[in-house]
Amino acid sequence: MARLLITGGAGFIGSHTCLVLLQAGHDLLVLDNFSNSTPLALERVSALAKLDVQSSQARLQVRRGDIRDRAGLDDLFSTAASAGAAIDAVVHFAGLKAVGESVREPLRYWDVNLTGSRCLLDAMNAHGCRTLVFSSSATLYGYPKDVPIPETASIQPINPYGHSKAAVEQLLHDLAASAPNQWRIACLRYFNPVGAHPSGKIGEDPLGTPNNLFPFMSQVAVGRRKSLQVFGGDWPTSDGTGVRDYIHVIDLAEGHSAALNCLLAEPAQLLTLNLGSGQGASVLEVVHAFERASGRQVPYEVVARRDGDAAITVADPAMALQRLGWKTQRGLDDICRDGWTWQAANPAGYSDQG
Ligand code: NAD
Ligand code: WQD
Known about the structure:
By secondary structure, the chain is an alpha/beta fold. 42% of the residues lie in helices and 17% in strands. The protein has one domain: Rossmann fold, CATH 3.40.50. It contains twelve helices and 14 strands. It is globular, with a radius of gyration of 20 Å. The structure holds nicotinamide-adenine-dinucleotide and UDP-4-deoxy-4-formamido-beta-L-arabinopyranose.
């Protein structure tokens, strides 16, 4: 079992991964500035992991702070080491992720995503912690030439968010090449993470109007929004709507656990893996699955295509199976059932309850 630093651990993917890592027996220290999350998510993770007050202090420590604060990182690594609980590895979720916002605010995206990652890596290096799982994204593939998309497909980001992720991947390659026997790194390229923990206690809670299909559709089903706009009905797909590879967030969390186990057990390496299901679903297939799971109607209208969208994005997940023995266990119906359990129990997200 390891002692792990989880940056951005209060966020959507981070909170679910914290739970899975606690259940796997790891001890966690979460660093988050809560710019897009709330400490309440971690209180719920602690309750789901059945940690009492005493074990919670030891097994799930939470520190408010920014990954760009180099002195703060030094203090964090030193304090952990001097308490006899040195950090063995880092799972790095902290970052900004909204594509449209990245087009409007490229400086902020490069600052948090690239400068923040560089600062974290610098601190890790200085403190001799050289094992990292990094949240990368299928957004790197831009408009893919072939689907399913293998990891060898060309990297062609089409927005500042994607460029910032590609830059971090490049930095990780350069770092690994500079000290090949030292760094253990996994770049995990997520496809479309959705759903929630089946308890309905933790889930996705975007600020303001959601940009993405699942949270928008859930808010329509629960009555917070009137109707869903389906972006394009004339794509070259079976029903004319866009096709994506939706991955249950618990499957994704388990992928992180598997990647960590692999890095900790094997010699130093840099792994780059797609985390997806290998199955595509169209927007209308998703809407109908969600209607079945929720028993609610999701009114929608088909409108013009959204700028920057691809027709079909589906992972080739073979490499993750081969290297980690990991594949998704949950399908679209599980995703919709668990996503609806969360939305129905928390119609206004975490702000619903104290
Ligand atoms: P999220 O916004 O829910 O979580 C990110 C967390 O990082 C939040 O808790 C936020 O408060 C924290 N954070 C942001 N800036 C920080 C900073 N400077 N210092 C410390 N903490 C900071 O997002 P998520 O969906 O959980 O995504 C996690 C990671 O996965 C991100 O790096 C994202 O780019 C990547 N990713 C997400 C998706 C997706 O569709 N959700 C897909 C591919 C990759
Ligand atoms: C899915 C499908 C839309 C909203 C995004 C990021 C990507 C990655 C994952 C971080 C598409 C359609 C959507 C709506 C719709 N994130 N849609 N109406 O764009 O595949 O991926 O999240 O790394 O970088 O770009 O996800 O959920 O926005 O869209 O019709 O209101 O749903 O056109 O076909 P996307 P999404």
